[in-house]
Write a structure and sequence with these properties.
Glycosyltransferase; Glyco_trans_28_C; 324 residues; single chain
Length: 324
């Protein structure tokens, strides 16, 4: 069996990497995604084909995927495909399903209340097995086979009391949606000698991963995107993680044992295509896995409170069983 693992970059790829490791069975594994610092690092050493980026609701980009779907099917002998979306799935799954390939679409864990636009389209395509990561809206058409968050548990934090307070701020990899509102709110709080440093009595060192968000004039020394391994190391090294409420960023923080502070992107501010991050942040807060703060009201006290909380992952994550 040859399995094609297909996803766009960012949180979709992070989720697929987690799910792929939990799918039992031998066979060849081929990955298809877009090339950036995250994906080239995360998939190093694996069989991977990088394809042009598929933009949000860009039908012409989706159409351009179909010839490559045909080539990879013929060349690699693909017999099964697993995808976590987003739009790239529309360029491959309908074509491969029509060719008799066993197709599985796993909706993003960020979709707490129902499927995304991609999921709603694929719900109408014959031959595609569909999965939700939230049991509350599972049913005959959408099977629940587990969530990438299910194996994490809240626990007390163990903050370091010596040396500088190390903070990681990340706004994810979204190419179309800057999140300057979060950076503007945090910059004075996290600045050298700022409110957080005064409150904790320690110097504060901040690593800013700001993606496409412009930071000119905000007084922060930022990087765009870190390679996956460098970001994972930075998450483990951080005392405090502040992030947008994106599934991939959250998953990375949890895997590093960090209880992240989450800020929600808002569609009305041009920060996201819709408001699904509101639902995801609320779900993570309900599970005790994250603290949710409004950028407009963030304070040093609220950030320090998050230091007292941690996350752990006991045992081995359960298998993700695909429908036959």
């Amino acid at each position: 069996m040859t399995t094609l693992f297909l996803a766009t970059t960012g949180g979709h790829l992070e989720q697929l990497d987690d799910i792929a490791a939990r799918i039992p069975g031998p066979g060849r594994r081929v990955w298809v995604t877009h090339a950036n610092a995250q994906s080239t690092s995360l998939l190093a050493g694996r069989e991977v084909e990088f394809v042009p980026y598929v933009g949000v609701r860009a039908l012409s980009d989706v159409a351009r995927c179909v010839p490559h779907a045909h080539r990879v099917w013929r060349r690699a002998g693909v017999t099964r495909v697993v995808s976590t979306g987003s739009g790239i799935a529309l360029g491959y799954l309908p074509y491969l399903a029509a060719r008799g390939v066993e197709c599985h679409y796993v909706e993003s864990v960020a979709r707490v209340a129902g499927p995304s636009l991609t999921g709603r389209v694929l719900d109408r395509v014959p031959g595609i097995r569909r999965y939700t990561q939230h049991e509350a809206w599972s049913g005959r058409r959408w099977r629940f086979a587990g969530s990438v968050f299910d194996s994490f548990r809240p626990c007390p934090g163990a903050p370091r009391t010596a040396g500088p307070l190390r903070v990681l701020v990340t706004v994810g990899t979204a190419a179309e949606f800057p999140f300057a509102r979060l950076v503007r709110a945090l910059a004075p709080v996290l600045a050298p000698g700022g409110e957080l440093a005064r409150r904790c009595g320690r110097p504060v060192r901040v690593l800013w991963q700001t993606g496409c968000t412009p930071v000119d004039g905000l007084g922060v020394d930022a990087v765009g995107l870190l390679p996956a391994r460098a970001l994972a190391a930075a998450l483990r090294d951080a005392d405090l993680v502040i992030s947008h409420a994106g599934a991939g960023s959250v998953l990375g923080a949890l895997a590093a044992g960090r209880h992240p502070v989450l800020a929600v992107r808002r569609a009305r501010e041009g920060e996201a295509g819709d408001d699904h991050q509101v639902q995801l942040a609320a779900e993570l807060s309900r599970r005790g896995l994250a603290t949710v703060l409004d950028p407009a009201t963030v304070t040093a006290a609220s950030l320090l409170d998050a230091l007292q909380r941690g996350v752990h992952r006991p045992g081995t994550p359960p298998a993700f069983e695909l429908a036959s």
